[in-house]
């Protein structure tokens, strides 16, 4: 069985988590890069990665890499590749180009030359060329160009993998689904531990956690780009999906609560959870969404995890001046009621610990889209860390 070369794109900082996930799926020769993971394996592995990866944004199949001097070389490369092996002239295609330190003057012109090369290849071979489609293509082709090499990939995912198929309603500045799953992994939360998100927004963290606990493959209710490519075995794909459906366990024990100050937002989160196949959990309260001010939230058990994405300047401008005082009140409530809990908070505001008058026990730099953020860990005890440090120094 031939080994193919793949690249899984992911948010920065999630590369090690994604690499471990791919290893569990059977990937070989794994290598982490900034923003993704290189790996090898059969085509079935790529289908499994699209279906099961919680952390990847896209799965790309590498089809060619060559040196180039100018855009004519890149046209020639696109012109000679056996595209008909992957799709036919009836397909609607889209070409995207990313460059790093490339000497080429115009990426738009280079993109056009790649399209010309592909279309000329089909016109000369069968007398008909594929059509170009930006919004809803059948086939997405990616070219990555550095200072010496051009690499062509086929996007096997189609729509980004964080689009699980259940999100319609969005809160303010929604957290992407694969980022939410990554935060849960980085926090060390496991399904046997209570989980709370007091700033739930559209419910992404809670829904991802519930799907993890129930063994619901994240891609179970959507389609993928590889389904329109010739080289994939669709019978094998149907069997793979049936196996994933059989693994779902909606009877799993879990305690996941999420809340938000807005009743409207809570309603949207509940609707998202229903579309995510979690109605049974909502019915018996193992997963719950409620209206509650984060400054007044209370624990459901002696110990547990808080994983949350509180509002910060970029989300709340021009209200950012009030966020700090609000988070101070949130912290006061956590110290009063959540002793024994572990709280993780994602924010782009590096002053969050001082605003909360808490000392973080750990921080992880992570990028939420273009924003450089910190994922702060706080071990909740009665009183603040600062007062305990002062007591230790005075003794």
Automatic annotation (TrEMBL):
GO terms for molecular function: methyltransferase activity. It comes from the Bacteria. One of its GO terms (biological process) is methylation. Transmembrane segments: none annotated. This is Class I SAM-dependent RNA methyltransferase. Signal peptide: none annotated. It comes from Parasutterella secunda. Residues 45-156 form the THUMP domain. The lineage of its organism: Bacteria, Pseudomonadati, Pseudomonadota, Betaproteobacteria, Burkholderiales. SUPFAM superfamilies: S-adenosyl-L-methionine-dependent methyltransferases. Keywords: Methyltransferase, RNA-binding, Transferase.
